[in-house]
Each structure stands twice: as structure tokens, then as C-alpha cells.
Design goal:
Blueprint: H1 3-21, H2 25-80, H3 84-158, H4 164-191, H5 195-224
């Protein structure tokens, strides 16, 4: 298992653990993505360093390879011109460059294998990050929906029961009480009328009757005359 895969697994384990304890999933998810971005930046730096090592070995082994070819050609040229000693020294130097080439080529192959592995693991991290980024939007939407549902449920718990409904019931009783008191006060007022009030009313109605009787008598006298 590569270092980046272990890092990714640790990051996902941390996300699952912290998400269970998170008070605000939205803030926590954003923090997780920032942490993953930092991990990716560190991974990219490590990959860049490994690629630099790979390129360095490649340049060095190619230079050694060129020297092997060059010394081989020089040895043949010296031998053709009858300079065996120069040809021998060219072949000796060629051997040293060949040994250097073999070692550098081995180091390059190893560095390239490591770099390719790190590239693949970095690509997996970026792919995983993309999935988490897309999943974040869904989780945030679900979190907001759950939060809204919870608020509605809490509001509905007392709605029309302990608060408003009881308030309306109290006001209804109060209005009934006011109406009863008004009716009772009217009845009491009617019962409390004094005798003077009654006689006064009687006198008022009696004066009208007397005047009406007098007018009738005058009318009768007029008709008889």
C-alpha cells in the first residue's frame, strides 16, 4: 500500500469519525475538503520531487550511454590508425562509462517506477476529492432539509395545543363572562327602579290621556251646536 493510499484512507476515516460528532455538518464538510486539498498539495509536491529525481537519472544515464558510444567509436578509429594503446585506453574508459550507465539506468528504472506509482496514487486522491466535492453538495442539501424539518417539527409540537389554542379558549371564556356580566347588570338596573320612577312614568302617560279626553269633549260639543 502506497503512502498516498494510506493517507487517503486515514483522511476518510477521520471524516467519518468527525462527521458523527459534528455540530454543524456544513462547516465540517467544508473543513474536510480544505484538509483534502492540503493533502493533495503535499502529495503533488512529493510527486514533483520524485519526477525530478527520475529526470535527473535519465539525463545522467543518457550522458553515460553517449560516452559509451563515443569511446567505442574512438577506440575503433584509433585501432584503424594503428594506435593500439589509444584504442586500449578508449575501451577502458568505455568500460567505466558502461558500468556507470548500467547503475544509472537501474536507478532511473526504479525512480520511474516510484514516480509512476505516485502519479497513479495522486490521481486517485484527486478523483476521490472530486467525488467528495460532489457528495458535499448532496450532504449539505440533506443537512439543510433535516434542519428545516426539525425546526418545523419543534414549532408544530406546541402549535394549536398549549399556546394559541388555549389562548383562544381563555379569550372565549372571558367574552362569555363579559356578556353575562352585561346581562346581569341590565336585570339589576330594571329591578332597582324606584316607585318615584314608576309614578313619574304614570304621570307622563296620564297627562296625555287627559289632554286627549278634553279634545274629544270639545269636539263633541262642537258637533251638537
Amino acid at each position: 500500500m502506497g503512502i498516498f493510499k494510506r493517507l487517503r484512507d486515514m483522511t476518510m476515516a477521520s471524516i467519518n469519525d468527525l462527521l458523527d460528532k459534528a455540530e454543524d455538518p456544513v462547516k465540517m464538510l467544508n473543513q474536510f475538503l480544505r484538509d483534502m486539498e492540503e493533502d493533495i498539495l503535499e502529495a503533488e509536491s512529493a510527486v514533483a520531487k520524485q519526477i525530478a529525481i527520475e529526470k535527473k537519472f535519465k539525463q545522467q544515464y543518457e550522458e553515460a550511454e553517449e560516452m559509451v558510444t563515443k569511446r567505442s567509436e574512438q577506440a575503433m578509429k584509433a585501432l584503424e590508425q594503428g594506435n593500439e594503446d589509444l584504442a586500449r585506453r578508449a575501451l577502458q574508459d568505455k568500460k567505466e562509462h558502461q558500468e556507470r550507465f548500467d547503475e544509472l539506468k537501474r536507478q532511473y528504472d526504479l525512480a520511474k517506477t516510484n514516480a509512476d506509482q505516485l502519479r497513479n496514487q495522486l490521481s486517485e486522491m484527486k478523483e476521490e476529492f472530486g467525488k467528495m466535492k460532489n457528495k458535499k453538495d448532496l450532504l449539505i442539501a440533506r443537512a439543510e432539509a433535516a434542519k428545516a424539518q426539525k425546526q418545523i417539527n419543534q414549532a408544530m409540537t406546541g402549535f394549536g395545543k398549549d399556546n394559541a389554542a388555549k389562548g383562544f379558549e381563555r379569550m372565549n371564556d372571558k367574552v362569555l363572562q363579559m356578556e353575562a356580566e352585561a346581562q346581569a347588570s341590565g336585570e339589576i338596573r330594571a329591578k332597582s327602579r324606584s316607585l318615584d320612577d314608576e309614578f313619574e312614568q304614570l304621570d307622563k302617560s296620564g297627562g296625555v290621556e287627559d289632554e286627549l279626553a278634553a279634545m274629544k269633549a270639545k269636539l263633541a260639543e262642537k258637533k251638537q251646536s
